[in-house]
Amino acid sequence: MYKTANKMTRAGMAAGAAALVLFLTTGCSTKRYVRSQAAPLIQNTNELDARTSADHRNIVDTDTRAQAGIATAQQAADTADQHAMAAGQNADKAQASAKDAYNRVDSLSGVVAGLDTYKPLNDVSVTFGFDKTTLTADDKKQLDELATNLGTTKHFILELTGGTDSTGDAQYNYQLSNRRADAVAYYLQTKYNVAPHKFYMVGIGKDNEVASNKTADGRKQNRRVEIRVLSNMQEEGSGSTTAQNSTPAGQ
To answer: Is 230 in contact with 157 (CB distance < 8 Å)?
Structure first.
């Protein structure tokens, strides 16, 4: 009986040992399987994290460079605006100085001594849009043709007579006609270096119409500046005659 019990005990121990070995073997296989399945997922997750971090760095870098570019462009634009403003102010000052030097008269004959010795050499008339003082391309072409001979013309003056149509207030039209004469004088002065004292300007408003204000074409003709080139022809003669008739305006 004792032997039988001993055999049973050994058999139980052997069975337990076998079960333990089986458990350990199964557990190790399960872990290896889990690791083999999890490894690719972990690797993919790590790669995704790396790509996400790289993308984030690229976005931050791009945004930083974009902001720097915007700031540089804005600074350049601000500088250009400042230069343009300064140039505009200088141009305004130059135009104001030029206008101050023009001879604005109510009557040309009342200012220029010996006007009867001045003879007309050439004349043109430029027209303006309604309530406008801007020279058109055609206006500039006519003034260019007029100015081509000024360089070889001696002792000349330019008589500028500005006019308007009959529309509007009389006082406003006087001012408008003067501004139109200013526009012509400024163009000739800046492009052809005609000295300001050469200009004698009269703003007549709507007082002296050259065509009927009852038609659109007539009103257009009245919105004009008439430019006459006058020269003291006697100054081309003897020295005594030149001394007698020479005036600052005719030089």
So the answer is: yes
* CATH code of the domain occupying 103-250: 3.30.1330.60
CA distance 19 to 178: 120
pTM value is 0.54
CB distance 124 to 136 below 8 Å: no
CB 166 within 8 A of CB 222: yes
Question: Cβ distance 250 to 118 under 8 Å?
Answer: yes
The number of angstroms, rounded, from the C-alpha of 7 to the middle of its chain's C-alpha atoms is 111
Q: Do 200 and 159 touch, CB atoms closer than 8 A?
A: yes
> Residue 196's closest CA among 249, 140, 120?
249
Residue 199 main-chain phi, psi, to 5 deg: -95, 130
Phi/psi at 231 (nearest 5 deg)? -135, 140
Q: Where are the alpha helices (DSSP H) in the chain?
A: 2-101, 137-147, 170-192, 216-222, 239-245
pLDDT tens, position by position, 40-81: 666 767 777 777 777 777 787 777 777 777 877 787 777 777
Which residue from 220, 174, 226 is spatially nearest to 200, judged by alpha carbons? 226
Q: Which tokens belong to 249?
A: 């305006």
Q: Domain spans of the chain?
A: 1-95, 103-250
What one-letter code names the amino acid at 83?
H
